[in-house]
Amino acid sequence: MRLVPWDPDIQTVMTRIESAALDLQPNFQRGEVWPKSKKQRLIDSVLREWHVPPIHVIENPDTRKQEVLDGQQRLVAIRDFVRGEFAVDGSIEPLDSKIQNLDGVKYRSLPDEVQRQFDQFTLRLYRIVDFKPSEPAELFYRLNQPSNLTGAEQRNAFYGPVRDQIRELVHSLESRGIGKEQFGFSNARMAYDDVICRVALTVKRGTIATKIIGNDLVELYRSEEALSERDYQHLEQCLGIFAEACMTDPKPKFNKATLYSWLIFSVRGISLGVFDLSNSEIIASFLRYFFYISLNLGQDDTNSSRFPLHLLIPIHDDRATSRVADVSSIILRDFIIWCAFLDFANVVAFDNAELESIDETISSILSSAGLDPDVLGRHILSSGWGELK
Fold first, then answer.
1. Partner of 297 for a Cys bridge, out of 44, 241, 293, 333, CB 3.0 to 4.6 A?
2. pLDDT of 167-176, one tens digit each?
3. Distance between CA atoms of 135 and 364, rounded to whole angstroms?
4. Residue ranges making up the domain that contains 105
């Protein structure tokens, strides 16, 4: 089987479609499944003269007619637009003033120069020739194997200042030798990028009390405005001190949800002046303390802790493995980490002026809410605990 490259313009392709020399629906193809919005996005790419993925067609050696092997939906979108079945959508991000002016315009009503530009746009086609009967089907299977990208991998395609800043922060971790051994999971499929992006958005918002959804992160990456110098420096300091703390033994183990919470804990501590940027040992010692009691504190253990950690830490652990994306779980994890830190500060006689007001807030919440996780979560939220600034 040979794949012969061919670069016809859209006008040529349309001529072949209309003359039935190019069959868009051979019997092995799925139906026309793209919604109008996805078709409009393809047309938007053509109008911007952006790349359109290659199309593969099988060529009959006798008739020279072609059947689409891969790329049917792209060609259908172009055909339907040229036939006037839908118009340009000028509101597709990132906004372009020229395309905004074409909003609602169908192919036949495009300005002459735009229509010529559209017609002359070249598509990369591969003509499949000299093939064995089984080869096109195998190629079709390989081209259409699912390749589900993670959210972080998709966002990495947005080339902009925020993307570059997040990558710089991740590289700073890698340059320190921080990886699976320290965090408990690797940066496979850009896992660290995802966590740091969420922390960055939280810092920018100044609160953990607002849910972060995938589209929020996309909009952060899509923005042409970089993170403020203050927020970026804050994140850099937070990652630096926390990365050093994680070099401790025994190594703490995180998942993406708990790493997010510990980074937010570091952000708040640095912001309040609780942690000295020149000394990560206090966080390292606290990490050892927290994970020790997490592993060794039974629910029936009524030790001498200032707060009922034997009941609180199981709530933290439960919310670290389920419902990890909802605001209530994030708030509870953060609150419980700070309960444990105050207990730790008492044990090691760590003194800081800011801890007194945090102690008062925590004591007030616990005295009024009790230890039912849902009730406690609501009280923490209503207290304004989620605000970082």
1. 293
2. 999 999 988 8
3. 71
4. 2-143
